Amino acid sequence: MTRASNIPALERATNRGWDAWVAELTARNAAALTHTEIAALARERMPAGLQNPDWWAQGVAIAYAQHIGRRQPGQSAAGDFRAGATKTIRAAPDAAVAAWLARFGGVAELDGVPAAKERLSQTEKRRVWRIDLADGGRVSVEFTGTPERTGVAVQHGGLGSPEDIARWKPVWKAALDELAGSLAEAAPGAE
After folding, report:
1. Do strands 113-122 and 81-89 pair parallel, antiparallel, or not at all (unpaired)?
2. 87: number of Cβ within 10 Å
3. What pTM did the predictor assign?
4. β-bridge partners, 51
C-alpha cells in the first residue's frame, strides 16, 4: 500500500477524509475498475461548488490506484513514469517561448539522450513545444499566461522507472530556473 503524497490536498479540497474515500471506493468494487471508471465514481462524490471537480476526481483515482498497489507514485495509467516541473515567469508567453527555443530549440540531445522529432504548436491561449527522445521519452513544455506572467509546465513522459523521475526532475527544474533567469536579465526588475 502506497500513500499518495497528495492525500492532504485531496482531503482539504473534497472535505472528506482519505479513509472515507478508500472505504467508499472499496465498497463500490473500484479495485476491479479502470482508471476512468474510478475517476467517474469519485466525480459523483465531489462537493458542490468545488472548482475543477474532474481534476480532483482524477487525483482521487490516482491516489486509490497507488493505495491498492496498481500504480507507483509518478506512474501513469499506461504504466510509464512521468516527471514534471512548473514555474511562473514574469514575461509574456511569446517571450518565454522565444527564450526557451533560444536554449532548447534544435538541440541534438537533452542531458545526454539524443533528441529526435521537435515541434511547436500554438493557439491563442497556449503554446506547446514538444520533443521526442531516442530512449522513448516524450517531453512537452506548455506556456500559458498573460502579457505579464507565463506559467511554464514541463511534462516528461515515457520514462521507465521511478529512478528516471529522480534523474529528470532536477534537469527540468534547472531548465525552468535558467529560463526565468534569462528573462530576468532581459527585463531588469522582473523575477
Report:
1. unpaired
2. 17
3. 0.75
4. none
In order of 82, 117, 131, the CA distances from 137 in angstroms are 9, 11, 9
- Roughly what angle, to the nearest 10 degrees, separates helices 7-14 and 53-67? 140
E-state strands within the chain? 81-89, 109-110, 113-122, 126-133, 138-145, 150-159
**Grid cell for residue 161:** 522507472
What 8-state DSSP symbol labels residue 92? -
For 103-130, the pLDDT digits (tens) are: 999 999 999 999 999 999 999 899 999 9
Residue pair 14/53 in contact (Cβ under 8 Å)? The answer is: no
Residue 16's closest CA among 56, 52, 51?
A: 56
β strands within 31-80, DSSP E: none
Name residues whose C-beta falls within 8 Å of residue 96's C-beta, 6 or more positions apart in sequence: 89, 143, 145, 150, 152, 179, 183
The confidence score (pLDDT) of residue 188 equals 55
CA geometry: angle at 10 spanning 8 and 11, to 5°? Answer: 65
Extract the C-alpha cell encoding 89: 515567469
